[in-house]
Specification:
heterodimer; A: 484 residues; 2 strands; B: mainly alpha
Chain lengths: 484, 502
């Protein structure tokens, strides 16, 4: 048994128990304040350790545990780094936010945060549809609770939790049903076994059905239209740090699923599922970008924006090349820092008053630094150089154009369409910038207070948004190393 | 050649100064901000002047002062700077306009720090584009140059500024989105994959881009750039944008950024996709002809001075695009010279209008009149710029327009002969609107008694105008060194167009 392969997961689990114990021993609410710092420090240490590990090169077989149910390859490692970084930033941004919203269950909150992270890490390593499903459920259950953590304070938070639970259960059911049909056809649940089976599989109606169910369930997880309807409500109502974490980590987890299941295991069935995915992407480009134009609530706007971003990510998956996979992972990384920064600013700005678009009014004059960070994040989301989002999109489009010119005209057309719709998205991103830079501030609106934890997480995000845009080579090299 | 990275210094001087102001200078220290901005743009001007003295004119067709290192090797992105005759001319144009633009903005007090930061980022980005010969860096700096416009117009503009800013940004970014696709197609169409402009040209000459490929991608790339050059019917951002923008921004935008579009059309679309260029040339010429005629009729029917100048820019950019569409050495020479001449001329116009508006607080011609009596300097400058606008010999636009019309006329194609005649005839409208503006605004009786108390241009205002007019007259009287410089750099393009793989 290769239990040492699970070291990162055990370490995070240990962190969870530590937080749990600390919460148990803490006498009152005020003394629970350091829990967030404890969490952040724990994540930082584990993240640093994981980054320092060399990638195993030229192994004859992929490192596995539990008879292939757990895979510890480079791909899993990259996703784990993503989840840990997101969890680190989320704990930093939670420290003061929880207090200001009067959350009573601070201990539980951080324990859930850690457990969700463990679940996602296991998800990234799942080598079997069964372990994948278990990890997925653990992750979703944690998020249902996190979304409704404002229970008793905010009715909409509970409502969002219920909505997410019901729709999430539907998605799980779709995935489970798809998996069971696949098991019936192939007689195996292991992803490797399925890949071997898919090579010679007949494209029977049952197989198409199973793939359609699976794709729909996965589309729900990354929120592609029309499986996105939970996202705006949940994003709007959840506490902002949870929204931020959900929007990046949960999306990355969905992405890990797609990469593991569709892109790796069912690569040979790509002609079957990629058409379906492309239709969903085209729908997403239109619907998410157009509906976002009308949003007045900044968190809803960001929700639609992140629905649209998911479709951009899928370009790399549909391209299916090694360049495409690198582009997807790179963009997921950029998107992590960008969205975290944006939500962090939103949370600080809307701490007084609501998360209305106008809460950003005159931010450039009130808090120039904060406005500048938000500007970088928004421009990065819009794909404007010199920020990371630009290079990420460039890379994604490159993978699409490469495959498109190599004889897939529909993919080329889709990339062209994505480019056109990115101009539509620029409109609502510019509206956010307009609020910050052009609209004057209201009379009673002064500078925004930025506590140290938020300052730290914002600084990390801003630095990464710039680095990924200006000098992406080290990250590309790292990705290349991880994906032989 | 010298080891000093002169080209990097030219684009980084304003860029770094902008970041420096952003990071270090307090928003209240308006004077310091302005002096730093002036120093940085002056430094770029000096560097460019030095470049002019060091440039090897005998080999103006080759890249000189090359700086090159790999930036993101995974996607073929190199930091690859250089200048040839055309680039050098554009650098001179930008440095003159940026320097005079900073001077013309001396009176900006509202949020001055942010204004000059954005202006410097814009100017620095443009320098970078004109000297960049790798399409990735070219594209990145191109977007960096376009985006500050949104805030510059949105915050400091006049009239329907938010609408104009949004329209301009969306249209230009829309164009650049197509560019992105085109650039990727070029990259993956070439073997080995490259983004180096000259390597791509070799790939084109070696026949790596099939005629079908070129016919498909030429319009994508050409239109992507042509939006910025205000090709009809994609010009609609231009009148609104230029009319709403503050003075220096109109100067830079009409004076330099629109040239960036035409420059891209020549350097990227025509140079790399010659078969496509030949195939689409009649369409481009027809649209450019509409530009010329429509722009001058539009200018003749406007009453707002800025709209008049904005429409005249549409018309003059039509001449540039027409020259490019001839795909003929003479015509393309004229087009590049017209880019320069129009940049200087329209910069002068917008500076003068800004100064007049600062005094009269209106730009509407019916409300103006007799200003020559109280503002003799501004009036005289306006007359000179106006004469350049209608192509009077002795001023820089004359040789440019002449070359374009001759180039179009002497192609072997009847179609182009007709186009040349029609375009040249439309100069009548140009004369009409130029003379109308002069007559209504500066001559005749004074329409408002308050105007009698106006003061003529101050020293800070006179310096940029004098510089601009000096360039206009200098190039107009003795254009030959400039034409030789352009001509040498046009040779590789002409050779590409002439040596098409069969």
């Amino acid at each position: 048994m290769n239990l040492e392969l699970l070291t990162p997961e055990f370490a995070v689990l240990g962190l969870g128990l530590l937080v749990f114990l600390a919460d148990l021993l803490a006498p009152d609410a005020a003394s629970r304040r350091p829990l967030g710092w404890l969490c952040a420090a724990g994540f930082a240490v584990i993240l640093a350790w994981l980054l320092a590990q060399p990638f195993p090169q030229d192994l004859p077989v992929t490192p596995m545990a539990f008879g292939g149910m757990f895979i510890a390859d480079g791909l899993a490692r990259i996703f784990k780094v993503l989840f840990l970084a997101a969890a680190l930033l989320a704990s930093l941004s939670s420290i003061d936010a929880l207090e200001s919203r009067g959350v009573r269950w601070q201990g539980e909150y951080y324990v859930l945060l850690v457990l969700v992270t463990v679940a996602m890490m296991c998800l990234a390593s799942a080598g079997d549809l069964l372990s994948l499903y278990v990890a997925l459920e653990l992750n979703s259950l944690g998020f249902y609770a996190l979304v409704s953590i404002l229970k008793g304070r905010s009715l909409v938070s509970s409502e969002a939790g219920i909505k997410y639970l019901v729709l999430g259960a539907l998605a799980s059911a779709l995935i489970l049903y798809g998996s069971s049909v696949l098991y019936g056809l192939s007689g195996t649940l292991s992803l490797q076994g399925l890949a071997a089976w898919a090579r010679g599989a007949e494209h029977s109606p049952a197989l198409l059905l199973a793939l359609a169910f699976l794709t729909a369930g996965l589309a729900f997880k990354v929120s592609l239209v029309p499986f996105h309807m939970w996202a705006p409500d949940v994003y709007q109502a959840a506490p902002t740090p949870v929204t931020a974490f959900l929007s990046v980590a949960s999306k990355a987890a969905g992405l890990a699923l797609i990469v593991r299941v569709l892109d790796s295991a069912f690569r040979d069935l790509a002609p079957v599922w990629d058409k379906l995915l492309m239709v969903l992407m085209a729908l997403t480009f239109v619907w998410a970008n157009v509906v976002a134009l009308k949003q007045k609530d900044i968190k809803r706007l960001m929700a639609y924006s992140s629905v649209a971003q998911a479709a951009y990510l899928m370009i790399g998956v549909v391209a299916g090349s090694s360049l495409g996979l690198q582009a997807v992972l790179f963009y997921a990384l950029v998107y992590l820092f960008t969205n975290m920064a944006a939500f962090q600013v939103i949370q600080l700005v809307s701490a007084k008053g609501g998360p209305d678009l106008s809460s950003l009014r005159g931010l450039a004059l009130r808090s120039p630094g904060l406005a500048l960070t938000m500007l970088a994040a928004i421009l990065s989301l819009a794909g404007i150089p010199p920020f990371g989002g630009f290079f990420g999109k460039y890379f994604l489009f490159a993978s699409g154009v490469q495959e498109g010119l190599a004889g897939r005209p529909w993919l080329l057309a889709l990339v062209g369409f994505a480019v056109v719709m990115s101009i539509v998205s620029l409109f609502y991103y510019l509206v956010v910038i307009k609020q910050m830079y052009i609209e004057p501030a209201g009379e009673d609106e002064g500078p925004v207070e930025v506590p140290p934890a938020a300052r730290l997480s914002l600084a990390i995000c801003a630095a990464m948004i710039l680095v990924t845009g200006l000098y992406p080579s080290p990250i590309l090299a790292w990705l290349k190393q991880a994906l032989p | 050649m010298s080891a000093f990275p002169i080209l990097s210094a030219i684009w980084l001087a304003p860029f770094v100064a902008g970041l420096l102001i952003m990071a270090c200078v307090h928003g209240e220290a308006v004077k310091a901000v302005k002096w730093i901005a002036l120093a940085a743009s002056g430094l770029s001007l000096l560097f460019t002047a030095w470049l002019l003295t060091q440039f090897d004119y005998a080999h103006a067709g080759q890249l000189q002062f090359v700086e090159r290192f790999a930036l993101i090797p995974e996607i073929g992105a190199d930091y690859h700077l250089g200048v040839d005759g055309i680039s050098l001319l554009m650098l001179v144009l930008n440095s003159v306009i940026l320097f005079t633009g900073v001077l013309a903005s001396w009176s900006v007090e509202k949020r001055a720090k942010e204004f000059f930061v954005l202006l410097l980022l814009l100017g620095g980005g443009v320098f970078g584009v004109f000297s960049s010969f790798n399409l990735y860096v070219f594209f990145v700096l191109y977007e960096v140059a376009v985006l500050p416009m949104y805030l510059l117009i949105g915050i400091w503009g006049t009239g329907p500024k938010e609408y104009s800013a949004m329209k301009l940004t969306l249209m230009l970014m829309g164009g650049s989105a197509f560019l992105l696709l085109g650039i990727l197609a070029l990259y993956y169409g070439s073997a080995p994959h490259t983004l180096d402009l000259f390597a791509l040209n070799k790939a084109a000459l070696a026949g790596q881009f099939s005629p079908g490929f070129q016919k498909l991608w030429f319009p994508v790339l050409f239109l992507g750039f042509a939006v910025l050059a205000a090709l009809w019917p994609l010009h609609t951002w231009s009148p609104d944008g230029h009319a709403s923008a503050p003075t220096a921004v109109s100067m830079l935008h009409a004076g330099v950024l629109m040239k960036l579009g035409a420059y891209g059309c020549l350097r990227v679309a025509i140079f790399l996709l010659p078969v496509g260029a030949h195939y689409w040339a009649p369409v481009v010429a027809s649209l450019a002809l509409v530009n010329v005629v429509y722009g001058s009729i539009g200018a003749a029917s406007q009453t707002d001075l800025k709209y008049v100048t904005a429409y005249s820019s549409v018309s003059h950019m039509g001449i540039v695009l027409l020259g490019l569409s001839t795909l003929d050495t003479l015509g393309m020479n004229g087009a590049v010279l017209q880019m320069f001449a129009h940049g200087i001329m329209t910069g002068t116009f917008f500076a003068l209008i800004g100064m007049t508006y600062g005094r009269t607080h209106t730009r509407l011609m019916p409300k103006l009149g007799g200003l020559a009596q109280v503002l003799p300097f501004l009036a005289a400058a306006y007359v000179i710029a106006g004469m350049a606008g209608l192509g009077l010999p002795g001023l820089s636009s004359f040789p440019a327009e002449l070359l374009v019309f001759l180039g179009a006329y002497f192609t072997q194609d009847t179609f182009f002969k007709v186009v040349a005649v029609v375009a040249a005839t439309s100069i009548v409208f140009t004369a009409l609107y130029v003379l109308r503006v002069l007559q209504k605004t500066f001559y005749g009786p004074i329409t408002d008694e308050h105007y009698r108390e106006l003061k003529d241009a101050t020293l800070v205002e006179r310096i940029p105008i004098v510089i601009l007019i000096a360039v206009m007259v200098g190039v107009g009287l003795y254009p030959f060194p400039v034409i030789r410089m352009i001509d040498a750099a046009i040779v590789p393009v002409a050779q590409t167009l002439g040596n098409l793989p069969k």
